[in-house]
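Standup notes
- HV: blocked on the assembly model, inputs below
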Amino acid sequence: MYRVKDLYKEHGTALSLKIVESEECMKRSIRSQDVQRPGLALSGYLYGHTGRRIIVFGKVEMGYLRDMPKEMRIERLRAIFSMTVPAVIVSRNYRPTKEIVDLCSEYGIPLFRSKMMTMNLISKLTLLLNEAFAPNVSMHGTFVEVFGVGAIITGDSSVGKSETALGLLERGHRLVSDDVVIIKKREYSYLEGTGAELTRHHMEIRGIGIINVANLYGAVCIRESKRVDLVIKLEAWNDTKFYDRIGLSEKHCDILGVKVPHHTVPLKPGRDLVLLVETIVLNHRLKKVGYNSAEEFNTKLLEVIARKSKTGKAQHEEHLQSTR
Amino acid sequence: MKNTCKVRVKNALGLHTRPATSIVQMLQSCKSKVRITYRRQTIDAKSILSILMLAVHKNANITIDVEGSDSDIVMKELVDAFENKFGEG
């Protein structure tokens, strides 16, 4: 649950928020990522006003309130504030009217003042709330950036995920997170992965213990967050399973409703995992710029077969004619 | 035990990637050695790129050699697959 307290603590300075009233009520939860200007609600039209959104009073709202008779002002504000509004912000550093302060105190609504312009405040607040409300999931795996592509290496415990990541770091690639990746869906279309705050940039290698990658390999080898482009699953070689030999059909996995290309790499002693991951990533990049090695090969093959088929037919007909 | 059989490729597109993949998949767990001969080129049928290299077209005749303990079963499976056009038209 996202509370007003969290918003103030995390982004209070960025939004230049100053508490005016009801500091003790900061535990109120924010239940919607939308921000509302109460224009129509102030005119008495309350349809659709559920009180779930943060309310921002700008220049126009303050002017409209000022021009109202006092009783009406109280009545209209009471109608808006009585619906458990999470917080009220007055922008442009306007001083909230006495009625706003009193009613916020009565209903226990946190009241803030901000120096920002109304539109700037609303767009910034919407962006921050969008991020806070983005659907997220955590995944077991090691998240690395290889040649600029974000790849999550998954697989059973002790299959060699961290060792592969270590090998990749040594070759100049970057670590985002080891063991647990927190994936957020951004702008309803793409995924972004980060590590947990505490374990970020730390790795656990069996036989060595916990190491700090940033200290060992330098700041160039780490990254805070990265878009998720690929999932690579490592698994023990299974003789009865048929592994992809051509690569014509692309497999995907579903993370938070987004389709992510998925590769399964079988392990066997002697297979260089670092090289395999690098090759998968390079092939992925090539596909992204419109070149698909497998498809290209297939087209070439079909052409050769068709050509051979024609010459074969011609030879056959010649042979038939000569025998007549 | 050694088995040899001549078969005709009936697929419209010849031995392209899909049938080649099914052959390799079929032979993955067999113990016998399987070879395909086409136009005097003999290849190991367990290697997909080798099969594709032959670029066998429709109505071409190929020779399949199977050598090993399970050669009868493997040969039957392969011939059936060729007969069924690998499930294609």
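- HV (later): unblocked. DSSP finds ten helices and 17 strands in chain A. Chain A has a mean pLDDT of 89.
- Next: hand off to the docking folks.
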